[in-house]
Amino acid sequence: MLELPRWQRSLDATLGPPKPGRFRLAPDDFLVDEVLDFAPEGHGEHLWLNIEKRNQTTLEVVKLLSQRCGVGTRDVGYSGMKDRVAVTRQWLSVHLPGKEAPPDLVQALTYSGVSVLQCVRHPRKLKRGVHRYNRFQLRLSGEAVEADDFSQRWQTLCQQGAPNYFGAQRFGPAGRNLQRAEALLARGWRKRDDRHGILLSTARSFLFNELLSDRVDKNQWQQPVNGDTLMLEGTQSVFNVDQVDATLCSRADALDLHPTGPLWGVGNISQQAAGEYEAALLERYPTLCDGLLRSGVKRGQRALRMCLSEPRLNREAQSVVLSFGLPRGSFATAVVSELIASPD
After folding, report:
1. Fewer CB within 10 A of the terminal residue: the chain, N end or C end?
2. Which sequence spans correspond to the domains of the chain?
3. Is the pLDDT score of 343 beyond 70?
4. Hey, CA dihedral for 175, 176, 182, 188, is it positive or negative?
5. Is the pLDDT of residue 66 over 60?
6. Do the domains 11-30+136-161+308-344 and 38-122 sit in the same CATH topology, yes or no?
7. Protein fold of 167-306
8. Which residue of the set 29, 83, 194, 214 is catalytic?
9. Going by CATH, does the domain composed of 38-122 fall within 1.20.1250.20?
10. What is the SS3 assignment for 279?
11. Per-residue pLDDT tens for 134-147?
12. What is the mean pLDDT of residues 69-91?
């Protein structure tokens, strides 16, 4: 039965492991603001709501909206899943063609702990992954933030980026979703056993983290290797390289492009040096790799590195407050794990 390992941190080789720290002692210590790169048009069949929630998952709010509006959960759209133990702002949409929202909707949501910041109409449903980025504000405390090397750790992450690990929350409490995914893929994935594809996502995330950890350990997570698929910074555009040259290395140093790793599924396996990392995954985790192929899920690519946009650090009496933006799909907990021990 698979257990979650401690994946390799990028700063350990030069600065050693971080000291113990405290993180997310209360929801107000973890603020998330979802940022779109467009504005709703003000008309259409879908009601878009910008909401603020705390101590609730996105799917709990989806269910609440579907019940209050008398629609199915499939008629409620959202771009990204946001943390439970946090204060998070995000957009959701409800399909209400030719109908007004219930007059007590805002009051009912407020009573359930969800504040509505804005309501506006739009012609289309809000789809997954359309927001531009997430803005985070995190409070850290403890021995780690008082250590002499904390500022150096933070500045290094701001300058070179951080490993783009999936956070521990992707794998469920105590990693139990990973064990459920392993069992399901061993007997054959069926949609009725994994309606939202959460277990497929768990298995793919685990394999990605394993490959990234291997490349961090060999200091090959920032620079491309032969056979890599590279992703342009700020976009999802990717291209393959057979042979790495000085120009590509220079662009990687400038954070203009990043090596990627596979989100395992049906598709061409990488070749040369990049392919060796994938072959190692297949050898170590045949149940997950083969099960994902048999499920029919298509292969994807994810950047091995994430860049922090507009990073800021403010020191308070016994804590620090960090503010930074991350691309959609990236986890702030992966940044925190480089700064303090046992962040979650």
Report:
1. N
2. 11-30+136-161+308-344, 38-122, 167-306
3. no
4. negative
5. yes
6. yes
7. Pseudouridine synthase (3.30.2340)
8. 83
9. no
10. helix
11. 999 999 999 999 99
12. 93
